[in-house]
Structure formats: structure tokens, C-alpha cells
Amino acid sequence: MSSLSFFVWILFLILSCLSILEINPLSVASFANISSQSEGCFLILFMVSFAVPDTLECEVQWALESITMNKASGGDGIPVELLQILKDDAVKVLYSICQQIWKTQQWPQDWKGSVFIPIPKKGNAKECSNYCTIALISHASKVMLKILQARLQQYVNRELPDVQARFRKGRGTRDQSANICWIMEKAREFQKNIYFCFIDYAKAFDCMDHNKLWKILKEMGIPDHLTCLLRNLYAGQEATVRTGHGTTDCFQIGKGRHQGCILSPCLFNFYAEYIMRNAGLEEAQAGIKTAGRNINNLRHADDTTLMAESEEELKSLLMKVKVEREKVGLKLNSQKTKIMASGPITSWEIDGETVETVSDFIFWGSKITADGDCSHEIKRRLLLGRKVMTHLDSIFKSRDITLPTKFHLVKATVFPVAMYGCESWTVKKAEH
């Protein structure tokens, strides 16, 4: 074999390994001074094949540029705009920090901290349950988190099934609404009854057990180096609560997701997938048989919808999921869990509490009914669009605002509300 053929063969192996690890081959161009020699090729090949690659300066630059601007700062008070204005200087400093974190697997304590901002939702403002919380973290820490997120993406694509739509690129609530409408149409076409259970879990994201999470990541095939980085990120988490009356002292967090962290959705998806696998839903015969496959669940993060062709099958699915979820610390919220059926159904009880049977349900923003009729959702959407128009009435009547501006305002505020989920509508002749 000639030296040229040998070099081409080695280069092919390197590019293959980079492709498997989802690393941009151009990012390795900085190693040109060694890759021009065969010894350097073997060095890169060994690094790529048998170890998790170190962070690269181009990764840091990409991560910094991809952070959304006009966002509140974390506890350090450094806005992301400042880091982006500094450009190369900021990249060099952040690259040095990220390299140190990658090698030592230890995080700066400032990057582990969060600032909680409680926001009232509705109801009595004196009750903590009527508040939602947003968390602010350091923008500098998001650079390293985005790099880890990109490294984890290949495992997300490999391990998560297509029934999980939350926190995944190119998927969302409208996809699941269209799926369930299509399933109901097919069931009605073949004159089959269909039974749904819309499961709700109490504080699912806040009940995630860290020790179980690390075991789950190992079973999912996540490299030990990445798992160790995540474990050390979660160890020693601190937070403060900021209100209009001031800021509290720091306190430790020992359970639940890392609030405000961009990795939390990805990690929770692994957590939820582990539960469903142990419940054995993929092997279960219960479900809806359509298009050559068996579908018995649709998921959107912790929101899970179980479905079957009989009440007995649905109960068996629910009990399997309930048992596995309780093993990892997630409790079923029987008050918000609902049952919907197109056929006869008896009263259900879970943990001594009756589960409500409904004839319609707001399914990720869209109203679905037991008979699968879309006319109710179409009317509801038109009413919601009209309500938005009413709120903008003073703007539309103003002579100081030009007609093109009013048109853009309608397009930006009214149309998204009125037409949400229209992809899944079955419009009848009477509704045209």
C-alpha cells in the first residue's frame, strides 16, 4: 500500500469517527500542524475513537454567538451582550475556563447558582402553589452548557422515541394534537372505541432524584465523562429568591432539575424515557393498531397520554406506568388526571380517589372531544381570536397608527391564536 493510500485510509477512518460523534471535521482543522503527519493522524484517531473529545475554541465561539440576547442576567450581573461585544477576547477567556472545567470536571461555584423569581399565576397570592418560578443563571455558564447540550444531542436522537415531542428540535404540541386527531379519525373510520388517560404528575420536574438520574444516564449509554460533569454541576447547587422586597440568603438544592439550566429538559426526557421503558409499553399488546404499528402513548415531557381500544387495556397501561413512576419518586396527581372514552366506561379510582371522566379535554392547547369532532375546537379558536381583537380595539380605532401597522399587528397577535392547531382540523362543508 502506498503512503498516499495509507493516508487516505486513515483520513477516512478519522472522518467516520467524527461523524459518529457528531463533530464538525472543520473544527479539527486547528490541528493541521500535526494532522499532516501520520503520527498526528494516529493521535487524532485515538483521541476521537476512545475518548470524549476536549472542548474546542470554535465550539465556545459558536455557543457564545447562539445565546439569546435581551435576557436578564444571573447572580453575577453580567449581560450576554457584554460577552458578545468583547468577541475574541471573551472567547479566549471562556475557552480557558471551559477547558479547565472539562479536564478537572469541577465547576465554578458561581456557575452553580440560580436566582429564583416567583411570578403569580392566578388565585390567592398568599399560597405558594399559585406561583410559577423562573430561574436566572450566569450567561457565561450557558456557554459550557450549550457545548454539553450539543454533545448530548446524538444520544437524545438515539434513545428517545418519536412519541416524545417536548424539547426536541422540529417537534411540538401541534404535532401531538395532529397525531391524536388522526388516531381518533381512524378509530371512527373503522368503528372502534378508543379510550384515553391524560396523566398529570405533581411537580414532576422538582421531584427528579439525582442519584437515579446518574444511573439512568449510564444505562442510556452516556459517556462517563459527560455524566461526571453533570453530577458535579448538580452537586452543591445554590439558589436565592428575589422579590420586590429584596433577596434571600443562599440555600442548597438537593432534588429536582437544575432550574434555568438548558440541559434540564434533555435530562428529564432521559428520566421519563427510562420510566416508560421499565413499564414495558413498547412490548405491550395494548394500544391502537394503525398504519402497521401499535401506539399506546403520546408524550410531551412529563405530560403523558395513554390510549387503548378497551377500558381493561387502558387500566393495565396506567398501572404499569404508575408503579414505575413511583419507584423514581414521581406521584400521580389524581385530581388533574382525566379519562376520556368514545365507548362505555365505568368509574375509576386511583389511590382511593375517583378519576374524573370527561367528554372533552384541552390537549396541549387544542380542544378534543370524545367523538373526534373538530367543529368545537374551530369555534373555540374563532372566539379566542375575537377576544384578542377586542383587546386591541382601541389600537384599531386610532388614527395615529397606519393601516400597514394594524395589519402586521393582526398578523402577529390574532392569527396565531385563531389558527393554532389548524393543521389537524377536519373542516366540514358547513364550516367553509
TrEMBL record:
Stretches of the chain forming a coiled coil according to its record: 281-327
Protein name: RNA-directed DNA polymerase
PANTHER family for this protein: REVERSE TRANSCRIPTASE DOMAIN-CONTAINING PROTEIN, RIBONUCLEASE H
Organism (species): Bos indicus x Bos taurus
SUPFAM superfamilies found in the cross-reference section: DNA/RNA polymerases
Keywords (A to Z) from UniProt: Coiled coil, Signal
The enzyme's E.C. designation: 2.7.7.49
Span of domain Reverse transcriptase: 100-368
Short name of one Pfam family: RVT_1
Domain of life: Eukaryota
Any one GO molecular-function label of the UniProt entry: RNA-directed DNA polymerase activity
Signal peptide annotation: 1-19
